[in-house]
Known about the structure:
Helix content is 24%, strand content 20%. It is built from seven helices and eleven strands.
Amino acid sequence: MCDVYKDRSFDTVPVTVGAYDKRLQQLNDFIQNTIPADIYAFEEVSGEQAVREALPDGGNGYNVCSYSDFKVQRLAVAWKSELGEAVACTVEPQLSLPGNPEEDQPRPGLSVDLKIDGELLRVLVVHLKSSCVSPLEASGDLTDSNDRDCRILQQQIVPIERWVEDRFSGTDKVILLGDFNRNFWHEVHETGPVRTDGSSPHTPLPAGVLVKDLFGEVFDDDPAATTVTLLPEECPANATTMALCHKGETEILSSDERKQLSQSANLGCRNPLGLDHILISRGIASAQAAEHVAIAGDQ
Length: 299
């Protein structure tokens, strides 16, 4: 879901008690009726209370893992209480690049361990640095050190790979999802070298060498436990939306095509494709794609 506090014209929902309560009720109904799930991941929330307000019945019947420090665009995971308590709820601060000046510190990662039917399921959520989206765009060149956004995202690559290698150990059931702010499908379909020096991503990243392909660097199947499946994405709203969704996996959509997708009858988001992904580990079998679903309803 995106732009949840904007109406169909992308105007912000009025800051009144009535408008806010109505929007919350719409969110509750949407989550309960359109995307019923056992586990939800949230980005850009202030914390647990905001998550519970968005969930049906004030979040009764759900457990929530979040945090109160770092910046206000925080992460959270909510799951049905019947699944059980969390074994661990862990924030990964290294993804926030704590050595940078505060204005150049992005968001941390979040990891939740759930014991379900005696087996450990680990859910990882990320929200990486924005505005360095696609290798098919000039503004998406990860190796451009003069571009602040790409430079910061480049700095996150080593810590996220270390985090993935650490968090993928100890269980073969891991779900990694969130706003990567990077179009992995464009990277997957590119055939160039992963690094600027052409070296193998299986080896430690040499000093001074930059990464061109974030997905290829982090998910290089080494160690083998980090092998993932990038879930294919579907846009089932209508035939036009589905066609544009598939086209967007291999090429840049025109401004008119993006505008068409943002219409409320289609996906209803200003940036509906290429940012969010779901990846699953070897121990999870899924025959389903990741679906983009629009939020219906005005303010």
